[in-house]
Amino acid sequence: MRTTMLFYSLIALLAACNSPAPKPDEDTLVNADFTPLEIDLENLLQEGKFPKDTLITITYDHFFKQKKRFKAYPLAAILKPLLAQVKDTSNLRITFTCIDGYAPNMNLSKVMEHEGYLAVQDLDQPEGKDWADSLANKFRPYYLVWQGIGKTDETFAWPYGVAEIRIASFIYDFADAYPMHNKAAQKGFTLYQLHCMKCHSINMVGGVMGPEFNYPKSITTYWEKEDIWNFLRNPQSYRYSAKMPGLPDLPKKEFEEIYTYLVAMQGKKPQE
């Protein structure tokens, strides 16, 4: 993964060759020197660093598609002691790593400004059960839920099986997947990060639940554009046993921006 030091070394090298160095995308360099935090949630719990659990009601749960009640730990109360020395959370990303390889990420400031909880028990289950039998192995150890999030808001992650949390600067964790200096592709990156990266990595950045899409070869070099579009909308029409949920409501314009990003990344491979 390219570090900040390597990035600035490259800028210096370009200048030394009498080539005008491209101006860094300044917003991506905020908190570039932040040392990443790796948080094993079960270890943190065993160390007695979790807050007291509480009973919560979620008006609309995005997984269950209905009102739900849980026993849960407030996420902000878990994170605040770990971030006590951090004065500015601008451009820090938080990644929720799940036992199945799913790894959604969000802006840390957004997480801290909303009411997230790590649920450990579905209170709508019979006494003595934490989760329905069909969900228990998937949902443990923690299921991330949010209070006050509307039905149509897709910008919040609702992962289950959350085992670890990672907090790092954007440039530290996403440099290899980010199309620096390409504004058109950056729009697609933002959409890819929202819809795809939680399962499909780019240059080994992102989730591992699904296949990598750029390294060593870009998906755009062995799949036709129209097939990518159709598969994205209805994976089961291509693969009978596909577990990937389709995105039938994704606007074609957004797909075009994602595709522009994927094409732009063809020539960008991870630093080795």
From TrEMBL:
Keywords: Heme, Iron, Metal-binding, Signal. Gene3D superfamilies: Cytochrome c-like domain (1.10.760.10). Residues 183-266 form the Cytochrome c domain. Residues 1-23 form the signal peptide. It holds the Pfam family Cytochrome_CBB3. GO terms for molecular function: electron transfer activity; heme binding; metal ion binding. The keyword Heme applies. This is Cytochrome c, class I. It comes from Haliscomenobacter hydrossis (strain ATCC 27775 / DSM 1100 / LMG 10767 / O).
